[in-house]
Write a structure and sequence with these properties.
By secondary structure, this protein is of the alpha/beta class. It has 2 domains: 179 residues, DHBP synthase; 82 residues, Rossmann fold (3-Layer(aba) Sandwich), CATH 3.40.50.11030. The chain is built from 9 helices and 14 strands. A hairpin with a 6-residue loop joins strand 2 and strand 3. Helix 1 packs across helix 5 and helix 2 packs across helix 8. The N terminus is likely disordered. Bound molecules: adenosine monophosphate and magnesium ion (MG).
Length: 339
């Protein structure tokens, strides 16, 4: 059975479309804090927001968009001060942020070292990378919502994967109606084009890299911080983040479609596993076979099992449907021969 012919596993919603007001923004913020998804306007395009510190909210974003891959998502914050809690800003990053924020510029920066007590961004939100993409939008509704939510909001465009980005609330409803609970509506997006993405996570001295052209012109950025590396100028570094060498892969080899595990293998199980033999340690992505729960656990569990006293991580088969496509895409990369 191919993926398109399988039933859609995402729960159905009656999608509410609410004009943005102080009251509906407060309600949308409460929904985000409770782990629900909210589509909201930004100056670029409508975003599909979810709590970036919650693995399950982030998994729900991928499910609603029917994304076949876990690509990293942009974290939205109300201002630079909040952004600095979730990313490390060097001098260049600060200059860019101070000049272009709030606005259609996304900065890829390193994750801060995990600190005791601080909220931690879901590994699924950054697709296992040690960097995070952060943006401070200028749209007043987005800013009010982010302030009220009080946490980083992961938000890709609010449309089904592979379709055109939505710039009106009706575009969102056409694409995601029935798949999300709430759309905050505020008319047309003024920029209508995705944000420019600059990677400033490199070592000091290496020029920042333009990852995606967008709402802020390259010339404007180069006038401030000098020449940018362009994605296509460096054949050693593919531009699709799914292929970046820095993409997280466990240190241990990964063995797919495992129906049992050796004593010196760690087992990453899925679904009922009581009859599966072996495994020095086992974690179950979802004992009940729920692909959204499995997606939420994937990166964290791979990290937990990646211990030097095991020979490999054996992974049970994951069905190739719904979020299983993205899970298997990620697992196949983790299992691919290493360079
Ligand atoms: P969208 O989901 O349409 O908003 O697009 C988000 C873009 O941000 C994608 O092109 C991602 O590849 C990019 N992105 C997000 N986080 C990172 C990161 N940590 N490193 C590199 N690119 C990123
Ligand atoms: Mg998109």
């Amino acid at each position: 059975m191919n993926a398109l012919s399988t039933p859609d596993p995402t729960p159905r919603f009656v999608t509410e479309l609410l004009p943005a007001s102080a009251a509906t923004i407060a309600r949308a913020a409460a929904a985000l804090c409770a782990g629900h998804l909210v589509a909201f306007p930004t100056e670029t395009v409508y975003g599909l927001g979810g709590d970036a510190t919650s693995d399950s909210a982030v998994a729900a974003i991928f499910a609603a968009k029917q994304r076949p891959r876990f690509n990293p998502l942009i974290l939205h914050l109300p201002d630079l001060e909040h952004a600095e809690k979730f990313g490390v800003f060097d001098e260049r990053a600060l200059r860019l942020a101070e000049t272009f924020w709030p606005g259609p510029l996304t900065l890829v920066v390193r994750r801060p070292p995990a600190t005791a007590g601080g909220a931690v961004v879901s590994l699924l939100a950054s697709a296992g990378l040690d960097t995070v993409a952060i943006r401070v939008p200028s749209h007043p509704v987005a800013r009010a919502l982010l302030k009220a939510a009080g946490r980083p909001i992961a938000a890709p465009s609010a449309n089904r994967s592979g379709t055109i980005s939505p710039t009106t609330p009706l575009h969102v409803r056409d694409s995601l109606g029935g798949r999300i609970p709430l759309i905050l509506a505020a008319g047309k997006c003024p920029v209508g084009l995705e944000s420019t993405i600059i990677d400033v996570s490199g070592e000091p001295g290496t020029p920042p890299r333009l990852l995606r052209p967008g709402g802020i012109a390259r010339e404007q950025i180069e006038a401030l911080i000098g020449p940018l590396l362009l994605p296509d100028l460096d054949p050693d570094r593919p531009t699709a983040p799914g292929q970046l060498s820095s993409h997280y892969a466990p240190t241990l080899p990964v063995r797919l479609d495992a129906l049992n595990a050796a004593a010196d293998e760690a087992l990453l199980a899925f679904g009922p596993d009581m009859f599966v033999r072996g495994g020095g340690e086992r974690l179950n992505l979802s004992a009940g076979g729920d692909l959204e729960e499995a997606a939420a656990n994937l990166f964290a569990m791979l990290r937990l099992l990646d211990q030097p006293h095991f020979r490999a991580i054996a992974v049970m088969p994951i069905p190739e449907q719904g979020l299983g496509l993205a899970i298997n895409d990620r697992l196949r990369r983790a299992a691919a021969p290493r360079l």
